[in-house]
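As promised in the previous annual report, we have extended the structural survey to additional targets. Below is the entry for SsrA-binding protein.
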Amino acid sequence: MPREKGRKVVASNRKARHDYSILDTYEAGMALTGTEVKSLRAGRASLVDAFAQERNGELYLHGMHIPEYVQGTWTNHEPRRTRKLLLNRIEIDRLIGKTRESGLTIVPLQVYFSDGWAKVEIGVAKGKKSYDKRQDLAKRDAQREIARAAGRRGKGMAD
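The corresponding structure token record, generated without further manual editing, is:
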């Protein structure tokens, strides 16, 4: 069977972009079992409350939920197990160095298949304060109103 091409998004962490300001992003592979891959291909995953953490010089993804594969038997995986992230040593060292700074953490942003391989997009993030979140919402609403008004003007409708 030929390998699929392109990028197929399985799950995205929209809350991460709301709660954190993303400073830098990386693409990492994941060490998965067979039933985890089958469950991901079925589009079943959740990144809510997931984060990456350093242990013994490696990065691990905690809290990501991949439900058990429906047709799986005794070989099924544990849904919230810790999964190893596959990165180059230079990238791992750079990420570990950044997380040692105060207030920075690593959060997963998306899980997707890239040319048949399961990947996770991780971001180095700094937590937002509540007033930052309110400002972002106000900016987004203002942009939406501007776009709506421009659309009406383009269609010849009066405000």
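Residues 7-128 form a domain with the Small Protein B; Chain: A; fold (CATH 2.40.280.10). The helical segments are 14-19, 34-41, 89-99, 130-155. These points will be discussed at the next consortium meeting with the crystallography subgroup.
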